[in-house]
Amino acid sequence: MTDKGDTRKNLDKRTARTRHAAVFQEAIRELRESYAQDERIADAKRAKTTQYIDVYARVRPMLPHEVERGEYTTISCIDDQTMAVHDCLMHNDMVHKYIDTHAHSFTKVFDEHTPTPVVYSSAAKPLVEHALSGGEAVCMMYGQTGSGKTHTMLGFLTHLADDIFNEPDQAINFKAVELVGSKCVDLLHDRNKVLICESNSGDIELVHSESQLARSAAELLDLFQDATSNRTTEATQVNAVSSRSHLICFLQIVSSDGVASNGQLVLLDLAGSERKEDQYFTDKARHQETIDTNMAHLALKQCLLAMSQDPPGHIPYRNSALTRILKNHLWSTTKQSKTAVVVTASPIPTDTEHTLTSLIHARQMVESAPHVTRTTKEIIEDEISTVSLFKTWDAAQVQAWLPSIKKGALASYASNIKSVMTGAALLRYPPARFNMICNGNAEHGKWLSNAVKAHIAHEKKLDAERRARNRLSKAK
Q1: CATH placement of domain 131-339
Q2: Is 338 known as a binding-site position?
Q3: Tens of pLDDT along 110-137?
Q4: Where does ATP bind (predicted)?
Q5: Whose CA is closest to 159, among 177, 145, 144, 139?
Q6: Is 144 annotated as a binding residue?
Q7: What is the pLDDT of residue 462?
Q8: Lower Cβ count inside 10 Å, N or C end of the chain?
């Protein structure tokens, strides 16, 4: 089920995953169907929970340009606490394929179809209620660049604004700072330099940072937009506008006249890590930022892990500027603190390695040695039960197959495949219909028509070989 025009044997992992998309997709579909009968993964060891820290995982939907280039979904939410990542791999002979499935358990998981209000109700609303009752609460977004952290944070802010301002006589003192390495600036006041100072009593103060009062949800969202527009960004291979900094928003709940109350909520959008292929296009300064980001993530993980121990261990908050800023809120000595970590994951096979890293690092914030349930599925391509026939394909499978033709020359036409354009439908199409799919390009239409014929011929060859083996086996 590969493109007959490309005879290369040595493919990197990411290219192999898209080149053999149809095979891997069918195997993943079979795995998902098996979960209802097979309880080995569904009964994976549950995530460790603590009184004050919960870890959630959210999968973002695929983006249109990802569908066009032949990506597909490699993450399954087996139940409301278990997320499985299907790592699609090739054996050393570059012919035989298999899938390593890594199942992780969290407080709760959300698939790509779960709307933000549902995620907010589970992960963030309890923190808002805790802050309204006078406590300290921290909600942090963690994950790779382009996995949906900032999108999730904006969604949370929209809903928490409604919840807070629905309470009588409430307002919010809003402060937003950006942290790059050890450099901290005020995002609402001309990026003024902020000093991270520790008082004699051990409290952390952000000197030269100022709050602004929001008396309505609209005012709060305007302040947030002002802050994010002043944030340091840079184009990467993942995002045209990718943040290379930590964004920390402080929401102190006050009365409408600005008099402070006890409760405060901190929203933290952690800088996304660059992938190795992104780093080839960055300079020395960007490499240093990546190192600083990873060191801050490590320091945060060490502090949260120490907090989650019973009894809590020594909390090394002085190891980074990020953990120093969060000290008053994550482990307040005067108020009860609650924390939620939301790890966001990209579903596409190109990001598999980074997704696996993000999930394990998020779990290590509350577990020193998280249990991961791993299973392996060998793929036998010439078995009809493993690789579905072209005539059984739905439109999504046809879309995923197009980029494998002529080294991706037809990938841009994937969005032209409508829901009625199934594999069975394409088998009945005259040449003119293939030309139409290719925006009137007759040459490309012929390529597509020939690819369908070649695919069917390959299926017949595999079926004939299977029948011959069966006859030989019976003769013996």
Answers
A1: 3.40.850.10
A2: no
A3: 999 999 999 999 999 999 999 999 999 9
A4: 143-150
A5: 139
A6: yes
A7: 76
A8: C
